[in-house]
Amino acid sequence: MTGHAADPYDPKAVRASTGSVFAVPVVTAASAGAVIEGMRTARLGRDAPLQVVGTDEAGEVELAHVDLTLPTLVVTGNETRGLSAQWRDACDVVARIPMRASAASSLNMASATAVVLYEALRQRAAM
């Protein structure tokens, strides 16, 4: 979580996460730049490259066609503005989640992230 974001330990957020906020590491940073710099450091000396996958309704690749079996940092923008330019530039790929014609053009942040994580689990289980 970077910049101005919801408090993951707010009682409403904890309840909505059904407690998973205590089982999955939550990392906060002052800015996207701080995370991107840490990400560059994490990429050094790894056997498998760390890829950065962003989500956007106008992404260039459908999510199912992104190899999520690799070590992956998933970046999801907020519902109002989507990915910042700084995050978009840091992404190796910006994926879209296909939506059938409906009144909604995109999912909210939590739903989009859940879909990406499910797809990663699906791909990894098939290995």
From TrEMBL:
<dbReference type="InterPro" id="IPR051259">
    <property type="entry name" value="rRNA_Methyltransferase"/>
</dbReference>
<dbReference type="InterPro" id="IPR029028">
    <property type="entry name" value="Alpha/beta_knot_MTases"/>
</dbReference>
<protein>
    <recommendedName>
        <fullName>tRNA/rRNA methyltransferase SpoU type domain-containing protein</fullName>
    </recommendedName>
</protein>
<dbReference type="Pfam" id="PF00588">
    <property type="entry name" value="SpoU_methylase"/>
</dbReference>
<keyword id="KW-0808">Transferase</keyword>
<dbReference type="InterPro" id="IPR001537">
    <property type="entry name" value="SpoU_MeTrfase"/>
</dbReference>
<feature type="domain" description="tRNA/rRNA methyltransferase SpoU type">
    <location>
        <begin position="4"/>
        <end position="118"/>
    </location>
</feature>
<dbReference type="InterPro" id="IPR029026">
    <property type="entry name" value="tRNA_m1G_MTases_N"/>
</dbReference>
<keyword id="KW-0489">Methyltransferase</keyword>
